[in-house]
Inverse folding.
């Protein structure tokens, strides 16, 4: 059977250097606007201590970054490709989004939230929702498409979109110091898990949901002026380690086994030579 040419992706082209420029503008909106209108939380204070600090330090800048990201996607004409990403994946990978959703729900510090004003809790919901939408739109949306359209294999698409996702979080060093470097490494692995969520759900909406809820569970432990950390916070940390080990062990069995013509299963040994 003769090989059929791959269809040309719809929309404009965006090379990876220009994507980096888009990311810089995206960061400038969040960090720059946050610095201009943000509330000084003082040395060592929680950035989620009051409704005002959450709205001014996060909701407004991140909200505007979403508008920017949406404008870029609209100009590129990529909404269809970004919102529906149909690349098969093996069934075991479903464990990633399911386990992350369960761990996030269990890790929410419900007692601490119950002690906070309703407006503060609502602002936390909004900011984590915005983070999930904005970061997934930029990295699992635009980023994945940029690397995919550049001809990279799925493995490299996952790698580079996740690495860039982690590197971007080094910008938090302006407010959090050296610990942002460690955060960037951890965030890179999280980015890979969100990529797997995209593969499992075949839609950007799933990683947006998982990402938002995951962040909400973590932030719920730092909300308020005098938060008490819940023991449940250990669950996402433990799961992160488990998922890292699981993906390392099973990294060669993420892609489904198909024949070269894409019509059915490959021979048992063929998947071992797949892209690494």
């Amino acid at each position: 059977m003769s090989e059929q040419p791959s269809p040309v992706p719809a929309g404009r082209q965006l090379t990876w250097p220009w994507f980096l420029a888009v990311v810089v503008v995206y960061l400038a909106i969040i960090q720059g606007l946050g610095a201009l209108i943000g509330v000084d939380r003082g040395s060592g204070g929680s950035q989620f201590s009051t409704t005002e600090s959450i709205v001014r330090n996060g909701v407004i800048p991140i909200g505007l970054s979403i508008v920017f990201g949406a404008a870029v996607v609209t100009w590129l004409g990529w909404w269809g490709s970004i919102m529906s990403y149909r690349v098969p994946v093996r069934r075991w990978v479903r464990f990633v989004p399911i386990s992350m959703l369960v761990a996030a729900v269990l890790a929410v510090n419900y007692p601490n939230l119950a002690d906070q004003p309703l407006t503060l809790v609502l602002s936390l919901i909004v900011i984590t929702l915005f983070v999930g939408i904005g970061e997934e739109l930029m990295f699992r949306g635009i980023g994945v498409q940029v690397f995919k359209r550049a001809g990279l294999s799925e493995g490299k698409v996952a790698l580079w979109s996740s690495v860039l996702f982690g590197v971007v979080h080094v910008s938090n060093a302006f407010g959090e110091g050296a610990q942002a470097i460690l955060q960037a490494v951890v965030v890179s692995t999280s980015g890979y898990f969100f990529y797997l969520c995209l593969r499992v759900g075949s839609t950007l909406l799933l990683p947006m949901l998982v990402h938002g809820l995951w962040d909400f569970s973590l932030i719920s432990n730092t909300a308020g002026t005098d938060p008490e950390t819940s023991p449940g916070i250990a669950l996402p940390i433990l799961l992160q380690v488990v998922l890292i080990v699981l993906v390392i062990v099973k990294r060669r069995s993420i892609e489904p086994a198909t024949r070269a013509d894409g019509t059915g299963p490959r021979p048992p040994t063929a998947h071992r030579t797949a892209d690494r």
Observations:
- The mean pLDDT is 87.
- The CA atoms of residues 147 and 156 lie 8 Å apart.
- The chain has one domain: 16-254.
